Amino acid sequence: MKWNHEIEFDNIANFLGKLFNKTPEAIKERFVNIPDMYVLAFKDDSDIKGVMVSIRNDKADNILETIYVAFEPDFNFKETNVFNKLNNFCKTEYIDLVFAQTISENSFVNVDIEKLSQIITLNTRVLMKLTISDYKEKWYDKVKGELPKISSDKLDFNKKFKVSGEKKSKKFTVISLNEVSWVKVAELQNKVYANLDLKDNLSIISKKTIDYNISLITKLFSGFYGHLSDTNSYIALSDAGEVAGYIVNLEPSNKKGFIADFAVDPSFQGYGLGKVLLRNTVIKYFEQLDCDSIGLAVSIDNNTAIEIYVDNGFQFEAEEIKEGILFID
To answer: 209-243 pLDDT, tens per residue?
Structure first.
């Protein structure tokens, strides 16, 4: 396993080129400019039989993301414990977690994905999308042809707002991402996901020790979610200053919005807080940021969240995403 600036990429490019019937130049063009890249090469005598390409995020230096794994069809996995070698390397580099955001036959070539579950924890997320046409069909008044106005439709940062639900009414204050402590958000995320009986990666992380988990989730938030939207993400605080709920969204890309994460503290559920946070997100994306659609990915067995999204007009997309997570003990 080596840093990108230490890698002699010619042999690796030749190996991948033969495997995919591409020129070494085409392989180099795809991989050689990836920042902070590690490559673990598995050899038989002097011949490369397999490679694992990973990146180390500059904002989460204790997390390694594996983006590509490829082996020859006859690679002997029994003789060469791939993940044991990776585990040993991570210990020397103080890496706590190896994360694979997308596991497919295109990214894990000649790997039995089902057998991966014996080594790493696999999770399946389903993609959901709300198009602007479905939004208008579901949310607009059919007679007036416009969005019904609700007092909490436009949340102003650092101002109180009132919500009403099954537990009567309550006031909250919303703040922006720039003002929030990620540790506070991670604490709530830990609390929410630890109570869910899911195989979701974040739920699994939440079953770790609280100190370890908060550090890890904080780095996942700040490192992996990408370009977060400061103006279209909302952190709701209780009167006591607790993080009662949040919705974290990405900046629009190609007129598409994306909800990165959404949670409400169980002790503040029933007031309608989640509905207000989601409603403000959707309205902002469509009415002010001129988006055509809003996407999200939710654990396939998180029925509660799926029901909320379906009730608000989101529909399933055909594609599912397999993710993997490996803790370094």
So the answer is: 445 555 555 555 555 555 778 788 899 999 999 99
178 and 300: one domain?
A: yes
Residue ending a domain, choose from 70, 91, 119: 119
Provide the whole-model pTM: 0.75
CA distance 100 to 201: 10
Residue 3, pLDDT score = 47
In a domain, 267, yes or no: yes
Same domain, 303 and 167: yes
Q: How far is CA 249 from CA 119, 144, 238, 287, 318, in A?
A: 32, 30, 21, 16, 22
CATH no. for residue 63? Answer: 3.40.630.30
* 81 and 162 inside one domain: no
pLDDT in tens, 183-195: 788 778 777 776 6
Which of residues 119, 142, 164 is at a domain's end?
119
At 46, list the tokens: 């002097």
Q: Per-residue pLDDT tens for 282-303?
A: 999 999 999 999 999 888 888 8
Task: Please indicate, yes or no, whether residues 59 and 135 belong to a single structural domain of this protein.
Answer: no
pLDDT for 1 = 47
Angle between helices 182-194 and 210-224 (to 10 degrees): 110
- Whose tokens are 């993710």? That residue is 323
- Domain hosting 151: range is 126-322
DSSP sequence for 28-77: HHHHTT-TTEEEEEEEETTEEEEEEEEEE-TT-TTEEEEEEEEE-TT--T
Whether 65 contacts 97, CB under 8 Å: no
**Rounded Cα gap, residues 184 and 118, in angstroms:** 33
In a domain, 328, yes or no: no
In 3-state terms, what secondary structure has residue 98? strand
273: tokens are: 């807080």
Distance CA 200, CA 322 (A): 10
